[in-house]
Amino acid sequence: AYNIHVNGVLHCRVRYSQLLGLHEQLRKEYGANVVPAFPPKKIFTLTPAEVEQRREQLEKYMQAVRQDPTLGGSETFNSFLRRAQQVVAGAGGSAPCARPGRSCRCALQETQQIPTEEVLLEVLLSNGQKVKVTVLTSDQTEDVLEAVASKLDLPDDLVGYFSLFLVRETADGAFSFVRKLQEFELPYVSVTSLRSPEFRIVLRKSYWDSSYDDDVMEHRVGLNLLYAQTVSDIERGWILVNKEQHRQLKSLQEKVSKKEFVRLAQTLKYYGYLKFDPCVTDFPEKGCHVVVSAGNNELNFQVRLPNEQLKEGSFKVTRMRCWRVTSSVPMSNGPSGSSPGKAEVKLELAFEYLMSKDRLQWVTITSPQAIMLSICLQSMVDELMVKKSGGSIRKMFRRRVNGALRRSDSQQAVKSPPLLVSRARGRAGDMRAAPKLGSVSLRGIGHAGPASDAGTNDFHGNYAFEGIGDEDL
């Protein structure tokens, strides 16, 4: 069995024969010239080296399919991932991989099918309010989002402004964002497979430009959701408020002037930002502790230097030439009976930034939330490109075609895809699902990045960077 990871989390386990079946179905529907080449069958038993070679070939195949706008967005491919997610590892778990010097695990062959049945799923709003919806275990993200919107009486033309996020809730009620749930995921399976009550699903707005607030506030339910999220972000300290602003906000709350409350909040620092857990960066020097916030088409850094001095600065997404997310699993030096599968995965987001007219510099963030940060960058660029082309997310609405939910083309342009994580060295049988890039595509990089052994396919080129002019500097 091969493990497929999406957004850094195990999504499903599949066999070679299942992937071959997917390949044959794609060839039948789209033609041999469109579908990438598939790793051939072998007559004899594979050697350990050939097993690793096949894994790499299958990984490249899945990445190529995911990146293709036709194949990656097809119902055939997405339904394959949804069905595969319903098959989980059996009670046998995993067994050590018999490969000297490698810290890895290979999945046992026992699997267990999750039955399709009605279940009660709890979705949180930003203020902690619980929305309980009845869904099927096989319902995808679109279905669950529709069920939540229906329960809240949110109109169809506003649903596209919101998304479901997987978060980790701490004891004090704070949220740590894990990832945005994708269209091929089964939210019930995604959250229950983690086997921990601290993982929750939260509904939040999914756009960055605060001018879209006007659309959302046109409807009572949209206004209530935006108001609740704004109040929550202020209480969490994500939005900075001085004493006078706090007094004004308190007065508006007492008057139940929700729209005026949001209007005032829009003028405050960090309005509409997502705040991430404290982590480490190499800017302006290695080993600096930093709190990163994403919003207003930038990453904001609040850095504590080694001498305890505090500094703040921002990196505009339009000045990021490219970025990538990498992961690594440290080698296990413990006793032979220890569990290498428990080794902590190290995640890094690195982006190449135009510091001045003629100087590019790499900046690296080491954080368990690196993939979520990457998704934020992706969605910011998507939103910028939609605006540049004259589009509007106002057109995002839901359609039901032959009983299946679909979104308009404009929604396809701005959704946040899962981003590629390069292979975790020392772990066999793992594949990473690559991005469906939309307006951002992979491009060859002319010189080495921060890690010289990384291939160019690890990079995400930024088309928003191409329009930068002297005035941006």
From TrEMBL:
Presence of keyword Protein transport: yes
Disordered: region residues: 407-427
SUPFAM superfamilies, alphabetized: PX domain
Alphabetical list of Pfam families matching this protein: PX (PF00787), SNX17-27-31_F1_FERM (PF21273), SNX17-31_F2_FERM (PF21271), SNX17_FERM_C (PF18116)
Major site of localization recorded for this protein: membrane
Entry keywords, A to Z: Cytoplasm, Cytoplasmic vesicle, Endosome, Lipid-binding, Membrane, Protein transport, Transport
Membrane topology reported for the UniProt record: Peripheral membrane protein
All residue ranges annotated as the PX domain in the record: 1-88
Compartments (UniProt record): Cytoplasmic vesicle membrane; Early endosome
A GO MF term: phosphatidylinositol binding
One GO BP annotation of this record: signal transduction
Any single Gene Ontology cellular-component annotation: cytoplasmic vesicle membrane
PROSITE patterns (alphabetical): PX (PS50195), RA (PS50200)
Domain Ras-associating intervals: 117-208
Role: Critical regulator of endosomal recycling of numerous surface proteins, including integrins, signaling receptor and channels. Binds to NPxY sequences in the cytoplasmic tails of target cargos. Associates with retriever and CCC complexes to prevent lysosomal degradation and promote cell surface recycling of numerous cargos such as integrins ITGB1, ITGB5 and their associated alpha subunits. Also required for maintenance of normal cell surface levels of APP and LRP1. Interacts with membranes containing phosphatidylinositol 3-phosphate (PtdIns(3P)).
UniProt-recorded name of the protein: Sorting nexin-17
Organism: Crypturellus undulatus
Gene coding for it: Snx17
